[in-house]
């Protein structure tokens, strides 16, 4: 009946040319029936919008007309006068004198490049006629491009007038939704939340407003409220894939078995509704990544998402964050070589996309529009060591992603009779980019790593006027000694100058640690802290490596550096406290954990209470304070369990208190429960159960616990105490020896020759 309705509206307009309702009705029906693929789509749309605009001129208090106009201008790009120009891989827009933009404006350059105007980088002033863009122009340099802008101010004016022009709650709700949407896209989440909330109260069934409200609640970290609103959205729009995906992620965050099950149900439904959407598969991979047991599944989902992205958008690059996550998952699942491949791809993406590093780097790039390779300068290097920092030089072979071989610019020949000396035959003129005051040979230093020819690598031991002395003889036959060879020297590239690449570098260093490659790990951590002194995690890792290597002095020095950079940082204080615990410095350790407890950071607070409980329990032998310290320890463990009943470490501590009090049966029940809840990951529990069984004279069970503990610690290579692996193993062997001794003594008392172990007297 659409055609008959259109005819009726036209007849009404014929009778009354200023009939606003007829104008609005006819324009909406016309727009709904336009085929987007038609050649007349734009002209017919403009005719319909002109009709609505005419209706607004006739009746400026008609809320429905103003809401429809506001919605139109929300999506409409308004052309600005004049032309603009932009350079390849630049985030700067050059405009004419008659173009004025403001920070936050949403703009379109040319036909399809959309971005926003942002504030200038700190320390830089805006040049006349230039504006900074949020995104980087990836195409070639172009001039005489049209500039378009979203007129959000007009949307706000129309929506406010519409709200004030009616008392109909449904129409008012739509006006509030339009206002909220403008604030939302301008990143004003506080006002967006306020207007979304008011819209939902006036029209509870307005699903777009409720979904926007859920998004802003997530931004405010009110996850439970956001999940409740998303469920209401799905009640009215069951096939809303965005709502299903977001609700799935929120349910995963709750981290309970029931919520995780429902979370993946939502995510699976979203993917089934839109199976070719790689973003939904990425969200499922991210959800699986939250649980260690699902790491392998998460990695498979990431691979599937990449395959979809390459099919759906072949020209679109894989985000470096995705590749980094895949590297981490490979690392966690012991696929170390595959992890290095993904980290390398992540760095390559950062190299090729100036969007990631344009706000951070200081050097200038070529203005030549044909220079399409200038974005790869992060992975290149120069002879002048521009990518190196004193104390943070990267040269190790395992860190090859952060250095390259640079042509020195000289041709060499092996000295007759001494293959460690290479004589300079030819020296090319210096490039403009290098320091012309020095010859290429003078830019080498003793200790530089060089490559001679195609594959021979050595180290510079001495530099003479026209020759180089290397550490290893150059392995060439007599015929080849007369040949001239090129020499290249290792130089650090600029990748570590790029802050987004630091997380990749840190992950690579952690991978080296996992693989037992301590030297390249330390080299990379030192390179990170020299270039980015505020990166606390690398200080902490250097401290941990020093501690594990037995160098407590260096560990202390790294922790002091971390404290200087980030005073009061909970992670730093925790490691400082643990260092004191390893040295049995109880008073300083207690002071540190008391400071942590005063910060009232949820996860850190529980750890601090647990550590304080352990300190009191380890000081039971203090004269006249046995009962007091035992009670303090018990109270701290109970406080943790009151807030978190699933804290297995606190439960294990409480079990030790019960055992100390002689309540062996209760203690044993607690330890068994800890093993069940923790999946047997708290190895202390095995020792504690061994002690309980030994006290109960159940020697076979005690020996089984001790042996299980030894097997588990040796297989993982990480003792659960602060001692070294050998010291820890020696202590457990003493427990085992005493268990055998006590078993033999008990059997001897019972005069049972058949049951006594390891005693040859009873076999005679």
Task: Describe what this molecule looks like in 3D.
By secondary structure, the chain is of the alpha+beta class. The chain has 29 helices and 14 strands. It has an 8-stranded antiparallel beta sheet. Helix 10 (241-254) runs parallel beside helix 12. Residues 358-376 have low confidence and may be disordered.
| Approximate helicity band | 55-70%
β-sheet strand percentage:
5-15%
Overall shape: it is: flat
State the distance separating the first and last CA atoms.
110 Å
Main sheet: strand order:
1-8-4-5-6-3-2-7
Largest sheet data? 8 strands, antiparallel
Kindly provide the radius of gyration, computed on alpha-carbon positions and rounded to a whole number of angstroms.
Answer: 35 Å
Calculate the mean pLDDT score and round it.
85
- Counting H and I runs of at least 4 residues, what is the number of helices? 29
Number of distinct beta strands? 14
Structural class: alpha+beta
Low-pLDDT runs of 5+ residues are 358-376
Brief write-up:
The protein is of the alpha+beta class.
Overview features:
single chain, about 775 residues, alpha+beta, 8-stranded antiparallel beta sheet, 6-stranded antiparallel β-barrel, 29 helices
Please write out the topology:
Elements (H helix, E strand, L loop, with lengths): L1 H14 L4 H13 L8 H18 L4 H13 L1 E3 L4 E3 L3 E5 L11 E4 L3 E6 L11 E8 L4 E4 L1 E4 L1 H13 L4 H17 L3 H14 L4 H13 L3 H14 L4 H14 L2 H17 L4 H11 L6 H18 L7 H13 L3 H17 L1 H4 L45 E13 L2 E10 L21 E4 L3 E8 L3 E4 L14 E8 L6 H16 L3 H14 L4 H13 L3 H14 L4 H13 L3 H14 L2 H17 L7 H18 L4 H13 L3 H15 L5 H12 L3 H18 L8 H25 L15
Antiparallel strand pairs: 1-8, 2-3, 2-7, 3-6, 4-5, 4-8, 5-6, 9-10, 9-14, 10-13, 11-12, 11-14, 12-13
């Amino acid at each position: 009946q659409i055609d008959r309705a259109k005819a009726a509206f036209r007849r009404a307009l014929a009778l009354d040319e200023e009939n606003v309702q007829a104008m609005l009705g006819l324009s909406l029906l016309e727009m709904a029936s336009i085929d987007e693929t038609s050649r007349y789509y734009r002209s017919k749309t403009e005719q319909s919008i002109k009709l609505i605009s005419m209706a607004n001129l006739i009746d400026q208090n008609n809320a429905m007309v103003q809401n429809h106009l506001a919605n139109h201008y929300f999506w409409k790009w308004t052309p600005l006068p004049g032309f603009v120009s932009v350079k390849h891989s630049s985030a700067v827009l050059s405009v004419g004198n008659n173009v004025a933009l403001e920070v936050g404006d949403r703009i379109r350059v040319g036909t399809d490049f959309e971005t926003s105007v942002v504030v200038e980088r700190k320390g830089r002033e805006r040049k006349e006629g230039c504006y900074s863009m949020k995104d980087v122009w990836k195409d070639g340099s172009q001039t005489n491009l049209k500039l378009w802008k979203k007129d959000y101010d007009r949307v706000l004016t129309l929506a406010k007038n519409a709200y004030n022009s009616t008392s109909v709650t449904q129409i008012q709700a739509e006006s509030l939704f339009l206002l909220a949407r403008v604030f939302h896209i301008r990143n004003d989440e506080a006002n967006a939340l306020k207007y979304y909330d008011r819209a939902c109260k006036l029209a509870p069934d307005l699903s777009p407003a409720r979904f926007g409200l859920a998004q802003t609640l997530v931004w405010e970290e009110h996850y439970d409220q956001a999940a409740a609103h998303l469920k209401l959205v799905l009640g009215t729009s069951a096939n809303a894939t965005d709502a299903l995906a977001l609700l799935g992620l929120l349910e995963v965050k709750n981290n309970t078995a029931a919520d995780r099950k429902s979370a993946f149900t939502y995510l699976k439904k979203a993917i089934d509704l839109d199976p070719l959407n790689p973003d939904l598969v990425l969200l499922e991979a991210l959800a699986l990544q939250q649980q260690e047991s699902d790491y392998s599944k998460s990695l498979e989902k990431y691979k599937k998402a990449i395959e979809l992205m390459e099919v759906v958008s072949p020209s679109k690059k894989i985000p470096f964050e995705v590749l980094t996550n895949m590297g981490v998952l490979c690392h966690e699942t012991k696929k170390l070589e595959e992890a290095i491949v993904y980290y390398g791809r992540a760095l390559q993406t950062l190299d090729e996309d100036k969007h990631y590093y344009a706000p951070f780097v200081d050097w200038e790039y070529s203005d030549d529009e044909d220079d399409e390779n200038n974005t790869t300068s992060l992975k290149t290097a120069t002879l002048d060591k521009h990518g190196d920092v004193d104390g943070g030089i990267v040269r190790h072979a395992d860190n090859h992603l952060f250095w390259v071989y640079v042509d020195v610019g000289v041709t060499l020949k092996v000295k007759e009779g001494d293959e460690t000396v290479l004589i300079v035959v030819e020296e090319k003129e210096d490039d403009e980019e290098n320091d012309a005051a020095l010859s290429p040979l003078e830019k080498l230093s003793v200790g530089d790593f060089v490559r001679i020819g195609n594959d021979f690598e050595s180290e510079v031991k001495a530099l003479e006027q026209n020759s180089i002395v290397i550490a290893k003889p150059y392995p060439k036959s007599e015929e080849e000694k007369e040949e001239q060879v090129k020499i290249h020297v290792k130089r650090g590239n600029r990748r570590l100058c790029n802050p987004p690449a630091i997380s990749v570098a840190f992950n690579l260093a952690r991978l080296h640690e996992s693989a037992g490659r301590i030297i390249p790990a330390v080299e990379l951590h030192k390179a990170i802290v020299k270039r980015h002194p505020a990166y606390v995690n690398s200080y902490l890792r250097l401290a941990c490596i020093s501690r594990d290597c037995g160098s407590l002095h260096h560990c202390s020095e790294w922790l002091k550096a971390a404290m200087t950079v980030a005073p009061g940082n909970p992670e730093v204080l925790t490691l400082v406290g643990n260092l004191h615990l390893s040295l049995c410095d109880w008073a300083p350790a207690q002071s540190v954990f008391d400071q942590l407890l005063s910060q009232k950071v949820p996860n850190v607070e529980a750890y601090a209470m647990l550590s304080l409980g352990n300190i009191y329990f380890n000081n039971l032998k203090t004269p006249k304070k046995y009962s007091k310290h035992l009670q303090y320890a018990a109270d701290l463990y109970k406080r943790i369990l009151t807030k978190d009943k699933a804290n297995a470490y606190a439960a294990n501590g409480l079990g030790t208190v019960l055992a100390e009090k002689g309540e062996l049966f209760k203690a044993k029940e607690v330890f068994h429960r800890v093993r069940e809840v923790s999946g047997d990951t708290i190895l202390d529990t095995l020792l504690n159960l061994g002690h309980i069984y030994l006290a109960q004279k159940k020697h076979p069970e005690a020996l089984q616990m001790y042996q299980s503990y030894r097997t588990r610690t040796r297989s993982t290579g990480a003792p659960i105490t602060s001692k070294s692996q050998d010291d820890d193993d020696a202590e457990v062997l003493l427990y085992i020896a005493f268990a055998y001794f006590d078993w033999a003594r008990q059997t001897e008392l019972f005069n049972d020759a058949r049951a006594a172990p390891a005693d040859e007297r009873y076999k005679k």
